[in-house]
Amino acid sequence: KVGRTIGDGNFAIEHMIQNEVSILRRVKHPNIVLLIEEMDMPTELYLVMELVKGGDLFDAITSTNKYTERDASGMLYNLASAIKYLHSLNIVHRDIKPENLLVYEHQDGSKSLKLGDFGLATIVDGPLYTVCGTPTYVAPEIIAETGYGLKVDIWAAGVITYILLCGFPPFRGSGEDQEVLFDQILMGQVDFPSPYWDNVSDSAKELITMMLQVDIEQRFSALQVLEHPWVNDDGLPENEHQLSVAGKIKKHFNTGPKPNSTAAGVSVIATTALDKERQVFRRRRNPDVRGHFKSQQAPPELNSESEDYSPSSSETVRSPNSPF
């Protein structure tokens, strides 16, 4: 199970809405869904958003006939570009996940990703302690409650990149027991099991390793991600293998056809309960938590500083050698 969004404290619904709108007013980037207009009615707040009708990230992968490392690299290029822009404004998103990455379809047939849902985003002016996010993508420092900052977004992007290349996440709980999942995240041990990673380049594995460092100082920044050879094309394999990840994504994340994949246009902000797993997200003080990375056997369940510019579609940041 991926789990629900979690959070409490000052994350009351009214505060969330006000905070999300204030952040959306500030951000303008080609890889971020644009807030066009807001209408505050007596009982509802209407947000007129940029129309992005290509579905989410998982829709893009599961609906394509051909999918390679170059496609995954282009997706990360888009995501890292959005993160770099946000971090240049000292804004942390805190809920980066595939469902919040929407696919924009250009007239020339190319596609790009746009980051949406800023309900948990906030300004970073010191260590943050509020426990929030989506369990599969949450960074270890959030679970440990030792204070965190911008780089929790890089961790989430690292988890997504891992999924893009194999179809399942690097850290997996057992059923509804999120305690197991959080223990794995705190340890930060990432495996690249055979046969699922046999045809994936070492460059991709090395990048994921650096994005999923438990040590925040060692973890890559958004700029370092963008400068990595796997993202700027220098580290992509010459003979690309088609990645068979769609079936695994459907199985692990229970994805399927959506009645309406259009995300944006006019949206009504509705109340959403936030649930903190109080017993699981307890304060942890384990001095031996470190990141160790190796390739071993497959998981049991699988055996068998930027400009402020207008986000017009013509300016969308995307890799020149990928549909994304």
From TrEMBL:
Entry coiled-coil feature ranges: none
Region (Disordered), start-end ranges: 281-324
GO biological process, one term: axon extension
Gene Ontology molecular function terms on file: ATP binding; protein serine/threonine kinase activity
Pfam family, one: Pkinase
A GO-annotated cellular component: cytoplasm
Compositionally biased intervals (Basic and acidic residues): 281-291
SMART domains the record matches: S_TKc
Gene3D superfamilies: Phosphorylase Kinase, domain 1, Transferase(Phosphotransferase) domain 1
Record InterPro entries: Kinase-like_dom_sf (IPR011009), Prot_kinase_dom (IPR000719), Ser/Thr_kinase_AS (IPR008271)
All residue ranges annotated as the Protein kinase domain in the record: 1-231
The protein's name: Protein kinase domain-containing protein
Species of the source: Anolis carolinensis (Green anole)
